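Open question from group meeting: does this chain pack into something compact, or does most of it stay loose? Before anyone orders reagents, we agreed to write out a predicted structure and look at it together. Recording both the input and the output here so the notebook holds the full record.
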Amino acid sequence: MAGKIIFTENAPAPVGPYSQAMKAGDFVYCSGQIPMNPATGKLEIGDVERETELVLDNMKAVIEASGAKMTDIIKVNIFLKSMGDFGVMNGVYGRYFESNPPARACVEVAGLPLGVNVEIECIAYVGN
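Structure tokens returned:
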């Protein structure tokens, strides 16, 4: 089964050989999103709360471009530069998934692209 490339100008364009997301059957696989402002093309680094909001806004834009909704997300992987930022990130994350939150993993990593503090990827299920 070949996947369908998902692209929206409402999220940052890929900066390498990958797609914002791929739709395969009833699933949407969203690439990791970073805190890049799609309107300006600039990174917004330093305030983990703002970074997380921007990452989740970018993820939402990609998911919606696929025809899915945030409530269709079934799995999220979060990568943090420091687990010391977990509480702030988690507070923002909770505003995007107020009920029936998806399964999730959150790990601290040695480094993230372009020096950002948070990156988030997800999988959505759009079948019934």
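Observations to bring back to the group:
The beta strands are 4-6, 21-24, 27-33, 36-37, 42-43, 73-80, 103-108, 118-125.
The radius of gyration is 14 Å.
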